[in-house]
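Bug #77: duplicate submission created two jobs. Keeping one. Sequence:
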Amino acid sequence: MFVDEVKIYIESGKGGNGCASFRREKYLPNGGPDGGDGGKGGDVIFATDSSLNTLSDFRNRKMYRAESGRDGSGKNCSGRKGDDLVIHVPVGTIIREAESRLVISDMAKEGEEEVLLRGGKGGKGNQHYATSTMQIPKYAQQGQEGKGLWVILELKVIADVGLLGYPNAGKSTFLARVSNAKPKIANYPFTTLSPNLGVVDLSYGKSLVIADIPGLIDGAAEGVGLGHEFLKHLERTRVLIHIVDTAGTDGRDPVSDIENINRELALYSQELAALPQVIAANKTDLPDSEIFMDEVTAYCQEKGYALFPISAATGKGIEALLHHVVKLRDQMDPEPIVFEREYFIDEPRLEEEEGDGILVEKLSEALYRISGAPIDKMLGYTNLESEKGFDFFQKFLRDRHVIKRLEEMGISEGDTVEVADIAFEYYP
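Kept job's structure:
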């Protein structure tokens, strides 16, 4: 089953906690601190895999988590790093932040790898906090939390040429004629229910990758029918071959078909509508095509479209069409079209300086709360059960003007202040 869009949750690993330990050996009853550091959490890495051409592997699994780092231990033993999680996706997969749908990364090249979420840093063991005045530090640093994110994976096929046309215009027959692709061919609407890719090897050493996009209908740009599900696969192509049924099968009018589909393109994307477009007047082997060919020819001359009468069934006129398309392709940038990054993941860093970012809230008449990344970081390496640790905690709040802000908000003696999951009574 072809799947070109899925929503998944990804999360990097938590850093392991540092260890608070002291050396205890025979003849060394009062050894110094020897707590090891916690291991770094695993990263979430996306990698392209040319053997994949659909996102169907993600249909039944929505949660992807890297391994957390191991905690440090005594004797200066550091915890093991958590294993990275490598997620393999097809070439051409765009990763978007789920809520905003902004582009985080475009995996447009074969063999590409990108670290999307970095694992949390491991906490430092108590050996790092020994000083001349504090020789037996009883606290160690907690590991940094991993980061989680809901993302949308969206596959946009990578091809030189996109085939346009109404259902039954002959796109699948054309692709089967010129390439190694084997699309299903039948006489009913929406025969092609997923994009088909074919490689065309020409006699003079050139090749083309062609994408047969499922037939469009009026209103596709607004999502009518299969709408955006297929139009998005044209966005990486450089040239469009617009295949038109000049035999008027099922009462179709070729000129109206060209205008209707081009209107859908423009409504969906002006960039897409501006791509070079070649009109392939198909089914010219049928007698009824003579009725419409003069009208199609006059229309193409007026609009400036290159016109090639062809027959996908017999091969008539196809070589000249492909030769012209290769020349157009070669005049354009050979690199695949890549969508620019729009969403930047804010990775937390343990080494950032504390400062702004401390939130002081008055929850009720006698209840206040202090929160923010600097507070969480400080609590990670402060042992509030020790006298020195508690003194450091209060000095931290004074130095960052938190006490002053509480007083300005009207805090009174005996009021409660919540910090993380700890509650304190305030005494000035």
